[in-house]
Structures are given as structure tokens and as C-alpha cells.
Amino acid sequence: MISAKNITKKYGKHVALNNVSLEVSKGEVFALLGPNGAGKTTFVKSLLGLVSLSGGELSLFDKSVSDSSSRVGVSYLPEKFSFHNYYSVYDCVKFFGQMHGLKGDDLHQKVQSAISRVGISDISDSKLNKISKGQLQRTGIATLLVSDSKLIILDEPFSGLDPLGIKDLKDIIASLAKEEDKAIFINSHILSEMEKICDSMAVLNKGEILVQGKIEEILAGEELEEYFYKLIKDVK
Length: 236
Ligand SMILES: Nc1ncnc2c1ncn2[C@@H]1O[C@H](COP(=O)(O)OP(=O)(O)OP(=O)(O)O)[C@@H](O)[C@H]1O
Known about the structure:
Rossmann fold; four-stranded antiparallel β-sheet; 36% helix; binds adenosine-5'-triphosphate; transport
């Protein structure tokens, strides 16, 4: 679903991604991990076509990311979800449903079901400027659930959520992961959460991939946090 072959991104003289290669396949929950400034956001922006690469090949569903149709079937949740303040939660999720081609009763049912799945049915009619940060983030998650996107890209999805929100999101990710035709790509710092929900990972540091593969095989019984800190310390 995602294929990066030797991709490089330079901002002026600064190399943010250096010869990065990685693959994300159907059915995977994939974590891109790395310290501040490692290049994670640059990688996500490259997938979304928001920055142009300096070299290499990056594709979604076997189409180059330079072709915007490669992003049909992709949903993205930014770290801080935002939308027009004067929309209600319902209308916001409905807008995303309409963007994915849903109509009539089907649209209404899917919007209601997405809102209920993230536990905010009680504030469905509230305007976005009248709800909390965590409720707004849950609204963002509902916008992902309303469509049947095959690739879901989550940027720091746990940020702004309370422990209950984190638990709900982990359950949602786990249930989406059961759908074998989907892949979930997560960019996050919260290592403890990643270990429980992801099956594959790559660690980026200073624009370079240090390790990549199945989490269980990489960790071989070690805790992810411990493994990560040792790995980063060793290459500093
Ligand atoms: N628009 C830009 N112009 C110049 N340099 C940039 C730009 N965007 C990012 N960088 C640099 O590229 C490197 C990678 O940044 P990036 O935002 O991709 O890292 P990150 O892993 O997402 O970091 P964080 O975890 O702090 O969000 C950093 O050194 C950053 O300073």
C-alpha cells in the first residue's frame, strides 16, 4: 500500500530524509517512530503530496504520490484535527462522508454510527467551537470511520486524548486492523501505546532508517521503550 524506494528530501542543504526505503502492506498496523526532527512528518507530508521529494520513488497503491489519484482510498488524521468552527459535529462528519460519495440514508446511518463509535453522540449537534480538544479529536476520528478508506494515516493520534480516549482509539484501531484489506500507518511518540497496537515498525533517526520489520521479531522480548532508547543512544 505504501512503497518508498530510496527517497530523499532536502530542505535547502538540510537532508530531512536520506535514502529511506520502506514498505507497508495490506492488513498491517505500521508505526513510524523516531525522536524529534527525525523526519517523520516530512515522510507523512511526502505521502500526502505536501512536499516534493528530492529523489527516489514513493508510491501509494502502486501509483506515484506525484499523481493525486494515488490518494483515492487514503484517509488522514492530523495531530490536531480542525474544521470550520460553525459546523456541528454531525455536519462535519457528514461533510467527510459526502466527500467519499455517500448519500441519503446510507450517509445518515454511517455518520451516526461513526459518531457513536467514538462516544460523542451526546454532542452530535454541538458546534465545533463549543466542544473540548479531546471531543474535537474524537470528531476527527469519526471522519475517518465514515468512509471505507483502505489506508489510514494517523499523525500522533493519541495527543490530546484522555486515558479513556486513548483506550477507545486503541480499540478502534484494533477493530480496523481486523479488516484485512486495510492498512494503518501511525506516526507517534507514545511508544507504550505503539507496542500494543502495531505489528510492524520502522525507526527513523536524522533522516535515516535504523531498523524496520515486525515488532515482535525486532524486540525479541525486550520492551519497545527500552529498545528504542538504546538504539537512539547508540547512534548519537
Ligand atoms: N520546511 C522546512 N524547512 C527547513 N527544514 C525543515 C522544514 N521542515 C522540517 N525541517 C527540518 O527537517 C528535519 C525533519 O523534520 P520533521 O518535521 O520531518 O521531523 P519529525 O520527526 O516529524 O519531528 P517531530 O517529532 O519533532 O515532529 C528537522 O531537522 C527539521 O528542522
